[in-house]
Amino acid sequence: MSAGIRKLVICGGGIESYTLAHRLKKHFSDSLSITLIESGNVSEPACVSVPPAAVNFFTSQGVSEDVLVGEAGGLYRTAVLLKSVNQGKDFYLPFSPPGFMLHARDFQHFYVWAHKKGLAHSYDEFSLSSMSAKRLKFLPASKDAGSLLSTLNHGYTLDVTRLKDYLRSKFQSMGGSIVDGEVSSVSLDADGCIACLDVHGIDDSSVVGDFYIDCSGEDNSNLSSALNASFLSERKSLPVDSIIRSVSSCSGSYRPFSSISLQGAGYIIEQSAQYKKQSDFVYNSGELSDEEAVNLFSEYMRTPPSDLKKLSGQSKRRNQFWVKNCIFMGASSGFLQDPFMGTYSLSQSSILRFISLFPSAKESAPLAEEYNRLTHLEYDCVVDFHSLLFRVFGLKSANARSDSFLGEAVSDRLKSRVDMFNHTGRVPFREGDPISQDLWVSTLLGSGLVPRAYDILVEGIEPKWIADQLKKMFQMIDGASAKMPYLKDYIAQGSAV
Amino acid sequence: MVKQSIVIVGGGTAGWMAAAALSNKLNPYLYDVTLIESEKIGTVGVGEATVPHLRYFNDSLGIDERDFIARTNATYKLGIEFVDWGSIGSSYVHPFGLFGRPQGDISFHHYWVKAHKLGAALPITDYSVGAVSAEQEKFSYPTDDPDSLASKFSYAFHIDASLYAGYLKEYAKSKSVKRREGKIEAVKTNEEGDIESLTLDDGTKINGDFFVDCSGFRSLLLGQTLNVDFESWAHWLPCDRAVAVPSERSGAPIPYTKATAKSAGWQWRIPLQSRIGNGLVYCSKYLSDEDAEKTLLSGLDGAPLADLNFLRFRAGRRRCSWAKNCVAVGLSGGFLEPLESTSIYLIQVAITKLLDYFPGMQDSSYLRQQFNAEMEDEYKKIRDFLILHYVATNRDDSDFWRYIRSMELPESLERKMRLFCERGVVEQYVKGMFLEPSWVAVYLGQGIVPENYHPAVDSMSEDELVQSLDRLKTEVQHHVELMSSHADSLNFYASEESFKSWPPGAMSLYGVFS
Ligand SMILES: Cc1cc2nc3c(=O)[nH]c(=O)nc-3n(C[C@H](O)[C@H](O)[C@H](O)COP(=O)(O)OP(=O)(O)OC[C@H]3O[C@@H](n4cnc5c(N)ncnc54)[C@H](O)[C@@H]3O)c2cc1C
Ligand SMILES: Cc1cc2nc3c(=O)[nH]c(=O)nc-3n(C[C@H](O)[C@H](O)[C@H](O)COP(=O)(O)OP(=O)(O)OC[C@H]3O[C@@H](n4cnc5c(N)ncnc54)[C@H](O)[C@@H]3O)c2cc1C
């Protein structure tokens, strides 16, 4: 190896740590030695939901769907249900884009055109993945490019404990080493880089590496204090700060979607894998006392308040994610709330970024700078998207106009994006955005913002022809989703084979 | 909707490409398209090398590629050979395609860098089907088998630009574009500053709702009438003149452009079916027109076929391409010197974006803003890539090259170069032209080898590495052996009966499958 990162140390034993550790082992085999330090006090989530990008992520890591949805107990997910979002109606934010292009123009313009002429269907009714999710049905994408089913897309809701156990045992069998104990102090070298971590455990020890990844979760770790790493607050854009969680076991009725619904000064996220269901109430403690929150939540969940767990959930991100010879990943990189693009999903893309920028010496300013630049680009987009979801929920009236639609506390980036949508019917592409333009459009249309304008070239097409096409599309999608198997049966079949 | 009239000013490559695309997409019951051109003024008369994206443009017009080749006197272009750039005596091909094969997420060039440091690598172009077939003057269509290296390259054309404009003129007229001959003498704007009408030298007045300025360097509407500033990039791309001349063909046409660096600029050689296009691009501060003429003529490999065409330009762009009710397409919007033949690509992009953001419904300021932001991004990405060719060198044999050495770079390029030098990383982006393989081609072709390669390369043993490069080389050679000569392929594909045998065009990477 050129100059040498021979030894990498990961601090933390959560899902993020093991995903990274396993990935790096796959990549570097024996040319990189990896030590993972885990302390026993685990308070990890039961479920995490990930978008379609995760399919490739896991495949290229050698973790198959048979594992994810089989032994690791996850479920397929094709949409996010936004409960009573627009005039009390539910909207299924789809993973496969609604409709089809006509005359090489995007479908959304035809939809807006028709909507203005009184079309009764909502936007998600043109998406096969929304329609199938609504009916609790599922099929993976067909490989036959000509088939309607080839447009499908899915992500997962994963069972954190089971998946972690799987990755952990793989990591160990590939020669990765695990140290039990808690990092109690950090020593720096003359350059200000981390030289070693002192671990307090059954046997006290000191772990030395060339490069470190901090996956120690939400609490400000001793690595970050040693490196003077700080956070930027995202409270303004994402004005919630507290979480109460309820986890229950899940019986039988599989849902191929996760859901979000507005409750008081917050929202409830519900996600379920095969054996577990997790519900989180995320709220603003300035507007709701903890007691009020607990009452509200237990009423909604019909759970005794004693079964609830309280977590902190300040919205923030690192000023710099890569400092000296250390990267902060997972919950320790920040928390942008998780209604759509969760922290774990963001780490998957951070892992890929880290691998592509993997340093060849313990310190590399250009690589760190690039990593930070790209990570911020991605986080900007996610903050904006979540911030949009909050505004959407904060707004109960219909016929929103973009001026009042967003309210005050959002970034100029988001304002200009929504303005652009409102005045042109298009959401501009942004470099580094993990959320597709289709999803932005679905979210905006689904939440009731019908843009003032659409692609003018639609006007040049015979109206009756467009109307017929839309009708046909709807029938095709409706018909195809009705014929799909129930997720439950699909899974049962799979495990029978 | 009241019928709108669109007026295109200028009948060069930009004007007729715009006319063809607009008439193909716009409903003739709703839009009138008129194009005004002046024989007195004429066109710039250069611009013969293209990039693969043009194939997508032609596809979307429904043009038969074989017909296009026959009508424009075209040859295939697999890339550009750069001679004397990194240092005098060195040369490399920048192909429209990939090098080798990535291993998982790690691009091939990292493996190459390690092998190179071990002294066990051939030039990186030897691992590219696109580059080797260019060197061996062979050509065939790429295949569509994603596992085969023969699917990892694409191609463009060398064309007679005036024939292409004529071809598109025919196309546009058949789609009811009206052509007006005449020199525009006056432009009238209304109180809002929008352009209202144009007056021709014979006194005719032409009204329009929307104007497409394809008037070339003059920038008659955007620059002269709407006063949009020109942002000069001449401090980074100092060449400001060119002299061009066609010459007699010697031997069969080769499937690539040649760009040879000179003491105060560079010289192009573009092979067409019937002749060769030549030109010297130079910096007037360091070379006189007379010396330029001498350099050009002494570098021809056949007798000149016409008078010399002297051209002046400035590298840079109008601060925005769309102002008021007018979009500039082509040279009127900007020009970045012809080094990587990106000008027709920029025309294509502007036209495509204009159609994507076509104005007419309510306030078009948002469409304009988006269009301008995207065009600016396209220009800047190409700009950085062009500058790289000049700075990735150890040449200091003239004042021109010494100036280049001393100049300060755009921050965006400095960052890119730092990343590459440190660890062979090419900045990733999705939109815009020249992605990783192109950057790698120029860096390595011009002698910038990164300090370090991706550490994952070390999980392969040195023996394995050397063997795998060897296998790759054999694989590449095998594919190229199966190809016919460029000249034979030109004949063969042209005579094929089947309706559409050429691979589809695309706007991604090089418009290939990978
Ligand atoms: C309401 C809510 C909903 C969410 N929904 C989603 C979702 O749908 N999708 C998604 O992708 N993400 C979601 N997330 C985020 C996801 O749950 C977190 O990203 C993930 O759990 C964080 O994992 P982690 O491994 O970084 O941290 P943790 O799970 O907190 O693990 C940290 C580990 O580090 C160890 N540790 C801590 N300090 C030390 C020390 N000093 N020494 C040694 N070990 C130490 C701990 O013991 C623990 O094992 C959600 C989060 C919340 C709050
Ligand atoms: C040295 C050089 C080499 C180049 N090489 C390449 C290359 O290899 N590849 C590539 O892609 N590009 C190349 N280009 C760029 C390419 O030539 C141009 O992008 C292309 O020709 C388009 O030009 P245009 O249509 O914008 O302008 P022009 O060809 O100049 O056309 C302008 C039109 O406007 C009309 N006009 C102007 N004023 C008036 C008026 N007042 N009234 C009426 N009509 C008017 C003219 O008559 C003419 O029809 C090169 C450019 C230069 C300078």
Automatic annotation (TrEMBL), chain A:
Highest taxon in the source lineage: Bacteria
PANTHER family documented for this protein: FAD-BINDING PROTEIN, FLAVIN-DEPENDENT TRYPTOPHAN HALOGENASE
Protein name: Tryptophan 7-halogenase
SUPFAM superfamilies tied to this protein: FAD/NAD(P)-binding domain
Species of origin: Gilvimarinus algae
Any Pfam family: Trp_halogenase
UniProtKB/TrEMBL annotation, chain B:
Top-rank taxon, per record: Bacteria
InterPro entries with a match to the protein in the record: FAD/NAD-bd_sf (IPR036188), Flavin-dep_Halogenase_NPB (IPR050816), Flavin_halogenase (IPR006905), Trp_halogen (IPR033856)
Name of the featured protein: Tryptophan 7-halogenase
